[in-house]
Amino acid sequence: MPRFGRSQVVRRRRRGSGFELVLSGEMRQVLRNLLGELEELLVAEPNDPSLRRLHPPAYLDDDESDAAYQLLAGDELRTSRHEAIQAVVSSLDADELTEDDLWNWMQALNAVRLVAGTRLDVSEDDVEPGPTGPDDPNAPMWAIYGLMTFLQHEVVEALSG
Amino acid sequence: MAPTVMPPELSSPDADILTRPDVGLDEVTDTDLPWIVLVWNDPINTMEYVALVFQKLFGYSKEKANALMLDVHHKGRAVVSSGTREKAELDVFRLHEHGLWATMQHDE
Fold this sequence. Notes:
The complex is a heterodimer.
Chain A: E1 10-12, E2 19-21, H1 25-44, H2 63-91, E3 96-97, H3 99-119, H4 139-160
Helix pairs in contact in A: 1-2, 2-3, 3-4
Chain B: H1 8-11, H2 25-31, E1 35-40, H3 47-58, H4 62-75, E2 77-83, H5 85-97, E3 101-106
Antiparallel strand pairs in B: 1-2, 1-3
């Protein structure tokens, strides 16, 4: 009987520290493309509404304090995100990941999930989040969302092991 | 904010608090940190992701991180940390870095 739930994509090395990245060349290219698109969006359209979950408010009842916070933290948040994305793109050229790499993956994959999820208007009430059918124009975005969810789960499993 | 238990040394009206500044002040400063950080539920971040982020950022045990995450999930939000304004802002920033929706406010 196969054991369900074992990580397939990110495997803890039996000897020494670190993790093995088991991902096809095609899948790596898909990731490079997606992360590249996210980077472009972050740079070219920082105020795109699909990015709103990447810079949420820090103060709910104090617009002045929040404006100050966004000014102070905005650049650092963008830099941090950019660095995580770049680190993941670099790591795709190799087969070994460190724990730090996995945390960059967590951040980068989550950023894509948040943007895709926002575009798909994912809500708590969705009983079965997904495309309505093969002709759903959102089907490609759902595929991206699903892939990111799967990969992130693999990374969480690896880090929790 | 006064400490809830008055040390016996200070219960006498002759006790001069100013000459014994360390007595009782640990209680005051430990309970007098005015900012709290809340994490709000959202429909995208997964439960396992949120719990792992809590473990990483705050050093909470798996159990505590899970319990906090379930609070966020069921109650809509939970207090994940508290402290000075500077500490709260840093915690909010680190949570935003990981894609969680965190806000800060005065503890009431």
